[in-house]
Structure formats: structure tokens, C-alpha cells
Protein 1
Amino acid sequence: MLAVFARNWRNALLGLAAVALSAPAWSQALEPLRVRLDWTPWGVHGAFHLAQQKGWYKQAGLDVSLEDGNGSVTTVQIVGAGDSFDLGHAALASAMIAREKGMPVKAVAVFARQSDIGLLVPADAGITGPAQLKGKKVAYTAGSLEAPFIDAFLAAGKLKKSDLELINVDAASKASTYAVGRADAAFSTIPFFLPVVSQNRPSSAVRFADFGLNMPSFGLFANESKLAQRRDAIERFASVSARAWEYIYAGHQDEAVAAILAQRPQARLDKKVLRGQIDALQPYFGQPAAGARLGAIVPQDWTQAVTTLSTVGLISASAEASSFYVPGLVHAERYDSLVQP
């Protein structure tokens, strides 16, 4: 009896050893990666929380820590000037402007290829462009990303700021100012605010991108020193995140909503608003370039961005578009087998 027991125990140990040897390396040593987000939880973070919830980052060998932010500009400054984070997620125009001022940051992935800033208007107002804003009361935030583009946007409708009443409100008050009707329209980040304000005031959007003011929007960037030190880990995170976005927009939006709620239970988030934000974001992702997958850098987008930003004096017109990004880091296709429907 003892001999049989010993033989069975030995076989069990050998079986466990074989499982351990065949297990992927990530299960034994995960590489830590700290990521600073652009804002408090909202729909644009869907891919990160979903990949975290499903364990996709761990399966790619990463132990990811996601920290909420308080604005793209602040995230760019913290990631660009410090050593606390390996990667940042923000509106990439902010990273371009910071680099032009000497901060060593570069984009590594672009999820929303089209500018998300524009004008929120009541759905029944009949406002489809800047020309119809004459005499209107419009809310904006002086220190926001949209502020420098207002003159150029209005000029497309042959208007000047003096042709309308601009109300400068802080970012936290802008949505409520517009939603309760104290403004006829509001300049803002469309996918974030549109589902929020539409609960009280059904609204639509007029995109700056449709009036020649286009540039890459939300994506990932890193300090050049981190890119040199941790390129492989950054590449894995960017690629898994891109694949997660593909998964979400293949009909799994509600899974992304559930993941955000599960990952940020104390944030008191509205399920309907989160879904609305994810849906509102999709048009800004656009179609990947021929032969590319979501997340990949598209050079012509950055050429356009230089034109857009230089037109309003935020960067030099002679800036080299390729200096703002690192190509070839995003490979969503490597994780097709990982992310199963």
C-alpha cells in the first residue's frame, strides 16, 4: 500500500512540475508598468479597464497599474518630466505642444485618429457650422485645448469672436452651464460631454475636424528615456490595448462598461453615460490605414496635425511631423489569439 501511495505521489509531483514548466513566463514574473490616464474614469478608458479585468495584460507579461488623471496637459507634464510613470494616455496634441517646448515626449499609439474637440449644440437648434453662431451665447474654457482654435473655427463661417457672446467658465462647470440652458452652445471635448449633457438637453456636435482643424486625439505617449529603457513593455501594453479596442467595437461595448464599473467601484459612474461615451468615441477612431490595425501611427495624420497646430501658433510650421511619434510599436495582430470573442 505504501509503495502504491509513494508511486502515486511521485507521479502527481511530476505532473505538477510539467505544468509549471509549460506555463507561460508571465505567470512567474510579471513586469510592472505604471500608466497615468488623462482624466477620472470615463469611456475612453474602456480598453484599459477591460484588458485589466480580463487579465490580458498579465497574459502579455505585464503587471499594469492604472492611475486616474486630472487633464491631458497635467498628464503630459507628469509623465514627461518625471520618473513615476512609464506611459501616459492623453489628447496627443498636448504632447506635441509639450515636445515643441522642449519636453522629451513622443506618441507611441493613436486610438482616436480624428480631433475630438468641437461644439455642442441643442439637437433641435439647426446649428451645423460656425456661421450659425452669430449672436449666440457660447460657453468655453480659456485654458482648455479647444480655446486656441476658436478663432480659426469661427473664421470658417466668416465670423469673429465679437460676433457672438463667449462665456468663459471653468471646465468643471461647463457641462452644467450648457445643460441647464445658460448658454446656446459650448466648445468642448465632444465624446466626454455629449452623453452627459444629452441627459438633460438632447444635443449634437459640430466637429472642428470637419472644418480643417484635424489632429490625432487620444492615444499613448512616453518619455524618451522610458522608451529607451522599457520599449518592449511599452510595445506590449500599447498592442494589447489596441486589440482590446478592436474587441470592444466588435460588439462588446457593454463588457467595457462593466469593466470600468468593476475597476472603479468608488467613482459613482453612470452606466448609461459610459456606454454613450464609448459609442460617441467610435467615429473619432476612424478607419485604420490600408494594411494597418487600430492603434498604429499614420504619418499623414501627423503632417495634418502640424498644419493644424501651427495655424493657431501652438507649434512651429517648420516642425518635422515624424519627430512627434515612434512608428512601428503597435502590433494588435500579435494578440488575436489572446483576445477571443
Protein 2
Amino acid sequence: MSRIGFIGLGVMGTPMAAHLAGAGHEVSGFDLNPDALEKLAAAGGRAAADVADAVAGADVVITMLPNHPQVEQVVLAPGGVLDVAGPGTLLADMSTIRPETSIAVARAGAEKGIRVLDAPVSGGQAGAEQASLSIMVGGPAEDFEAAKPIFELLGKTIVHVGPHGAGQVVKAANQLVVGGIYGLVAEAIVLLEASGVDAGVGLDVLAGGLAGSRILELKRKSMVERQFAPGFRIDLHHKDMGIALAAARQADVALPLTGLVAQLVAAGRAMGYGSLDHSALLKVVEGVSGRPSEEV
């Protein structure tokens, strides 16, 4: 069993850390939210006093943070992960951040003999709770193999996708596809309802044909019923679409549909829907169509 330091106990980090503790690993976690620390302790982990306390003596450190500024602060700042962890420690950053930040963290880690992987995840809160996440991993193959037994406690699809930063590029691609599908499902619902067709029945048909997707499988009922309790907030998807657009500029490619989806997500945030699930893009499409949207 490993000693694991886990930094970032949000809606996804808390169940992930709990799975590791439940498997018998010695998990020390830290978060700024005291309630999250209590949940980890209840699940068999240890509530650390700060980042340094969580990382000290750990074989593996996992970070699950909102964005690159938090990762830079937790990992690179004095008293952070690289300042405290010993040589040979494996750091898996499972946050969704800019590829260039992941590469910079890996370089800084190498200078101190710390192995680094970027390992963002897809699957949302439900995937974290069910340990069914998809994990896309960038970094050396030997470090991926060392971390794989840990990842297997958190997800079902675990793939080494390339060197440092590659995991973040794959996650950016994931998010642009997810956002696009949500937008199209929203448009389908608006079209069906405006035409007098039962949207639930219509989406049942779509889900069974070529248009079928994981989103239709899991979200069509809640979208038709206008249930937008967050599994993954529009605010976070807005951040991720920015990463996708920046990655496209870095790669010198044009992604016109991604640009449209990013604007749709940005509109949802501007309209005050940032705290809702990203399926609430339906409210945005209803708004531009001049159709009333029920409050949630």
C-alpha cells in the first residue's frame, strides 16, 4: 500500500480520495474547505493541516484543482509539493489545466527528481463517485505504469496518450466534443418542442440510432425535465473551452465549431447560469430562440 497525499477535495476529489483510502492506501488530504476534510476523515483518510503536511512522506501525490493558478501555487510555491516531496515521489496532476503548465510542472519536478504525470479525467461527479472515470495520461511510459494501479482504483478507461502535456490536449479535445454535443442536444430539444413533438420520446429515438452518445444516454431525461443540478458546472466548462481554444492557437489549427461552442458556453455564464450543470446550455438555446425557460 502507498502513502498518498491528495490536494483538492472538491466534488470530484473527495470521492476519489475516499476510493483510495477504501482500498487500504494511507491517504492524507488537504483542502481549504473544512467540510471536505471531515468527509475524507469519515472515509478513512487523514485530514492534513496544509499542503506540506499532506505531502510529507508521501510516495504518490495527487492534485485535483480548479485551474492552472491553483496548481502553480500548490506545486511550485514555497512549502508546496515540489518543495516538500522527496526524490522519487510520483506527482499525478489530475486537474484540467493548460498543457504548457503541465509541461512546466514536469520540468520543475525533474530538477528535483520528482516524477510528474498530467492525468486529467472525464466523467464528472458521477464518474468520480462510481470510480468509472476516463483518465488520459501524459508523461513517461514507465511513470504511467507505476501510477496505473492507483488510477485503476479511480477509473475504467486509463490510457497513456503521450509525453508531458498530451493528457491535457486530449482533455481539451474531450471538452470541446462534450460541449458541442450538449449544444446540439439542446437545439434538438428546442426544435422538437417547438414543433409539438414530445422531446423525451424524440430523444429516446435519437439515443438508439447513429446520433446516440453517452450524453444522450445519461442526460436526456434530466435535460427535458430541466434538472440542472451541477455534476460539472458551466463555469468550469467555460475555463476548459478557453484551454481548447488556446491549444488550437498553439497548434496553429482552426477549430470553427469549437469557437461557436465556446461562445455558447460563455453566453451561459454571462446569463447567470455558471453554477448550473453544463447541460443548462439548453437554457441558453431557449433564450436565443425566444422561448421561455423554466427556472431550476
Protein 3
Amino acid sequence: MSLEKSVLDIDKIRGLLNSEYGLELLDCISLELGSANCYKVHCKEGVFFFKEYQSEFTKDRVDNEADIVKFLISNDFPVAEFIKNANGQNSVLYEGHVISLQQFIEGKSYLNDLPHSLLMESAKYLGVMHSLLKDYPMEISMDYDWAVGFSSEAVSQKFNGLLSALDENKSDPNYVRIHDDLVFKMKLMDSIDAWKEYFKGITYTSTHGDYTACQLICDGGEIKAVIDFSSAGCIPAVWEIMRSYIQSGGVSRNGSYFDVEDFSLYVKEYMKYAPLTERDLEAMPYIYLFQLAQSSYGYKEYLVTKTENKEALLDFGFWRTDICREIYKKASDISVALLQVA
């Protein structure tokens, strides 16, 4: 779901396609993909993927994404090629938003319901991608220094602020669940300092940064391409692995049950293509918990910023907190099971 209202309309899109790319628009279809405003544009010259990034994205950031895609193409990894404009640029700045045009790849995308066979295949593509990108220069984030910078007291104050905002409207039908979730997350702050130590000695790799089912184009029971490298960076490999499993289909939207054995199979498939150390496997659930435990995403948008689609964002926040409860309960079992994979 898009997070910002588009600055474009059909006439502006037509004008941009013509002036920047020399293309004649025939039809434009809005796509419900991700957090940007995305369109499938049928032009006289072909079919393309037209993307209006959120206002926080800079042109340099999008151009870096295009460079990553170009690198992966050169290594026969399936991605959607960026189309250069008349001036040879990979992106255009228009009314405060970066615009890009890419190859359109026909196929089906999923949310959190990726069929199990494709879920396991996605582990393969993630491993191959990490193998290709391991030495690709990207800025490191989510490292030990980053983790140490978090204060459990500051995070607790953030949650207390949200509880105060919630108490201003006790008649809200979601009051009880929001209250219980925020109190649960505050209790996790007792463990967060210990979890910081797991960021030492793990594998950091350049990667997609948001590798989930909605970033995969599938067709005929196969993955055709990986799209949207706008969040790419150098982060803990284990964080992307665990998140990709959970948010692609490893845990359904209708429940939070986490199958430790099945996840072990996912990691085993990944390790056919990219190595992990025993330290990585031991640390994996705690690295994931560290980020998830302190996230207020969904609750803040619902209670404070009043973002568009706030109900859907709150539902996502509920789901992630249920996952947090499940992983917290099974963290030790997950580590033991993963070490057996090694």
C-alpha cells in the first residue's frame, strides 16, 4: 500500500514519459505494490514499470539502486532493468519525488502467502544474491555500534508516549490489544542489552534489504525476478534471512505459529549457496528480536501521525507483535535447531 498521496495524474505521467523517455502512453494502470506509487504503463513502444518514490528518497539513492541492478544483470541474476531517459539518467526528479522507469516483468506477486515450494526457492535466490553481492560496496548498518546506540530507557519512553496517546481515547475499539502489545514490548526491554552482544562476530553482507514475497515476480511455479532494491544495504545476513521467511509465507497472516523445523529447512537451502557460521546460526533469532522488539511501526501511525491506511498499518503492527511473542518464546529452540543444520 502506498504511504504517500501521488503528486502525479495521468496527464503528468503522459508528459513525463514523452519528454523524458520519448514514449507515447496508451494506458496506465495503478499497481497496489509496496509503499511507493507504482504503475504499469502501456506505451506505443512497449510495457514498462513506472515508479514514483516516497519523498524521503533522493535521486542519488535511486541511482545507486540502478547500479546494483546493473551489477546483478551482469551476473545473470534475474532483476528488472532500469530504462535510461533521453539524457542517459536512471531517474528523474519531479515535484520533490524521484521517478524511475524499468522493464516490466509479467507475473504474479504474493504478500505473505507465498506457496511453500516458492518459499524454499526464494531461499535459494537469497543465497545466490548474497554470494554475488558479498563484496559489493554498500554502507554498513545494523552493526554492533548501531545496536549499542539504542537505549532501553529511551525505547521504553517511546512506548510510554504511545500509551499516553492511547489513554486519550479509551473508547477506541483497539484499546485493549494496543495496550497489551505496548506493555509486552516494554517488558522486552529487560532483554535488549543482552541481545546487543549477538551483533558481534556475525556475517554482514550487501543485500536487498527488503527481501520478501512482494518483491518476487513469479510465474508457473517459478521465481522469474527479484525487484525493488531501494532498501539495499550491508546488514546482518541472518536478519534478512529470518525476516524473508516470516514475511513471505513462513508465518501466515491468520496466525503467528512459527515452525522451527520448516525454518531450519529454509536456512539449509540458503546455505547451499552462501555460507553461515555457527555464530550466525546461534544469533539469528536474537538479531531479529532486537529490531522487532523496539519497533512501534503501525502503532505510531495509528495513534500519533494518523497516516493514510492507518487501520491496515495497525493490523500489520498487531501481526508483527504476535510474531515477536512467538520468536521470543522459541528463541532458544530456534538457535539449537539451526546449529544442527550446520
Protein 4
Amino acid sequence: MGAVVLRSGAVWSLVTAAVHDGRPEGVLLAVLALAAGYAAGRILGALTPVAAPCAGAAAGLVQAVLLPRTAPGPEAVVPLGHAGAAAALLILSAGAACCAARTTPVARVRLALWLLAGVVVVVGASLGSATAVVACGAVLLCSLAAGRGFRRGPVLAGLALFAALVTGLTWAVAGNVLPGGLAGAVREALTSRRAELWRDALGMARRASGLGVGPGRFGELSETAARSSPPDGKPHSAPLQLAAEQGVVGVLLLGAVFCWVLFALWRAPRPTPVVLTAAASLTALAVVASAGNALSFTTVTAGAGLLAGVATARPLTEALPVREPARTSGAAPRCGRDLHGGRPAG
């Protein structure tokens, strides 16, 4: 199912690019990074279910702090501008650390991993990203509460509904259909330029709802993006960008990818706390991507695939079935015990 969804997204981007002379390289790279990260996560999660997410958490934390292209730059005052990529990396790092904590049976290691997730929250505060602090804190709290015997099905459905509501809120802001007071508060939080970019994207989606305007062409056709300094050519919303550049089908394929990940988590053989922790982290990433351009960074899409792969992997360290000892013709049965001091066989 995942292969079909990802392949459909890649093919549709090529179709829309051929019709409108677009540039599908960004979409193709994102699909490739997500698929490669998911495959690597399935492999590493099966071999080292604790070490793999630990390494992923450390790598994401280092990248969020040190890489210049993901650190808050000229748009540091914008909650979900270019700094959204750093917030997304911190969210994935917190989720990976919490997944490792929920996997390890060693109490001291578990405590150390909880502390690592807390350090990620502190790093988000030091970077000045309120989004990272709130989202990472929510992931940590969800992971702590995931061990209380919740059923994964209703929780996953609730997370999907929450992501859909946030996406609907961005569309409502773009369409200027919110009440006056709420609309003003949202614009103040997101800045007026962000709202104008969203309106431009929604306008393109309405004019070309079938095939969009072509991948990579939003910056050429948006007056608000042309006036931006420095111009980045992004509407800072993954659903609105796909709606403008690839039409309704592009948005449906993006939603299908998210639903496929949640479906894979629902069927995953891992313990429910691990599954719910990963789902909470990926939902937080989806919320950030709905109001920012986090998915435009390859490290973010690859990290999301890696976390999803680790959370859906089947560990190879499962206990092997115990064999009963061979009985001699004159020996009495001992109910699965061998002759070495009465210890269990195998």
C-alpha cells in the first residue's frame, strides 16, 4: 500500500510538471527521502530497536542546532517560517527518544532517554522556537501517558482528526472565512504575509483545481512571494502548496500518505506505547507542515520516514520457542523439565 501511494505521488508530480512545464525535482526528492528513510527504519528497527531511535534522536538534535540551513535565519520572528524545519527536526528527535524509552527494558536507560527528550524541549526554547517547545512537550506527555492501557485504534483516529482540523483551519484562514476576532488573532500569530501567501495559493488552487499550476511554479505566479525578501517561492503550507501546484489530486495523495503511515502504525507488531508515541510525533510534524515549509527539507522527510519505519519494524530479538527435551524409553515424563537440576529446557 505504501509503495502504491508513494509511486502515485511521484507519477502525478511528473504529469502535472509535463502539462505546465513545472519542476518536479523537489517532490521526487521528498518521495525518495521518505521511502529511503522508511526502509532504513524498518531494517534498523528490526536489528537494534533501541539503539536505532537513540541514534536518530541524537542526529536530529545535532542537525537542528548546527546546520545553517535549518537554523532560524532572517525570519526568526515568524513562528513557522524557515525555523519550522528546525522545529520539525526537534519534534522527530523527541519522538525517537521517547520511542527508544518505551522500547528498552532497562530502567536506567529509560530514565536517561526521558531526560534526552526533556533536553530536546530545552534546546527548542534556547533556539527561540515556541512551536518546538509546545510540540516536543506534547510528544513527551503523550508518550508518558501512552503506557496507561489506551487502545491504539481510537487514539490514532483522534490524531488523524486533529491533523485534519488544523489543515482545515489553514484553509479557513486562506479563504478568509473565520470570524473577525479569531481571524485577527490568527493573522497576528502567523503574520499578514503568511496569510497573503496562503490566499495566493488558494486562489491558484481554485483557478486550476484539476492539474494545478505545476510543481515549483508558485513563486513565479504569486505576487506576495515575489515581494518577499528574500524570496523563497513557498506558500509555507504543504497542503496549500500541493493544492496550488498539483491540484486536488495532489492534496488527496498527501493525505493518503499520512493515512497510510497511521494505518501501518495501527497494524505494527510493536507495543502500543511505542506506536502511539511515534504517531503523536508524526502528527505534530503534520501540524507544523500544514502551516510551514518543513517538508521542503530532505532531512525532515527522511527523518519522518525513519521514525515511522522504526515504529513499525518487527524486532529480530523475539524469544525463540522452547523445545522439550528428548525422553528416553525408561524415563518418566517431567512436564517440560530436563534432568539438569529441574531447570526449564532450552
